[in-house]
Amino acid sequence: MFSGKVVLITGAAGGIGIAAAKAFAKEGAKLALVDLSKEALEKAANTMDAGDVLLLTANVANEDEVKRYVEETMNHYGQIDVFINNAGINGKFANLVDQSAENFQAVMNVNVNGVFFGLKHVLKTMMKQKSGVIVNTASNGGLLGAPGMGPYIASKHAVIGLNKTAALEAAEYGIRVNAVAPSGVDTAMMKSIETNAMPGKEQEAREMFESTVPMKRYATPEEIADLMVFLSSDKASFITGSYYRIDGGQGTGSA
Ligand SMILES: NC(=O)c1ccc[n+]([C@@H]2O[C@H](COP(=O)([O-])OP(=O)(O)OC[C@H]3O[C@@H](n4cnc5c(N)ncnc54)[C@H](O)[C@@H]3O)[C@@H](O)[C@H]2O)c1
What we know:
Elements: E1 6-10, H1 15-26, E2 30-35, H2 38-46, E3 53-57, H3 63-77, E4 82-85, H4 101-129, E5 132-137, H5 150-170, E6 175-182, H6 188-197, H7 202-211, H8 221-232, E7 243-246
Parallel strand pairs: 1-2, 1-4, 2-3, 4-5, 5-6, 6-7
Bound molecules: nicotinamide-adenine-dinucleotide.
């Protein structure tokens, strides 16, 4: 489905990023993978059965580094067909009255500025190409509130807003922009959230989080990757500006 296409993924050494990279590689894509550390990227790439893979270290919160990962992808491949704007952090848990400005800003820097810079520089390239597809990783936290997670919740609501704006600005160029909004996914991030919520009682925290999902489990990263692949494919050719809950029914309301 993606033979000869170039797929650029941020947060590519993390759980969802790796699953996305593998899913696109399986469909024949060439990969450009962005994350903070070269070592983590190499470790991730070693788990993939992929042909062309370009590894790029960048902090997505730094606009110059974002500009550079886009330029390096273009220098190497000459095109960007799909952009998975995925890197994110959860930050520290505290209710708003106890939340620090530093933590709030740190989460916004990665989750909002990082997504904005990625959209800005990839869209410039895709607008010249007059083609491309973008999937932003939001969260069910972009649609719902959660006590103690104010910075993350605010950042993911912002991602939904950027997603809608980007879709409207890019539509006339033949570019589609959508977002995925998962509930808990079985990755390092959810482990960090468990520790934040109940330090030392991670298994209990997991059971508590899973009990809030009608399907009573976390998503697998592969399930999120499958939705990303669908939204990036021609099968989703009339879908833009949308966000897709992938949450085992969690956002539906009470059972
Ligand atoms: N795991 C979940 O439960 C869940 C649920 C909904 C949404 N999400 C979102 O999915 C995305 C991927 O998360 P994940 O679950 O794979 O977590 P993860 O922690 O496994 O992966 C996140 C990756 O992003 C990278 N990253 C963090 N800050 C970065 C920065 N400044 N620059 C470049 N890379 C950076 C990390 O190094 C890591 O490899 C995030 O945006 C997250 O908010 C996750």
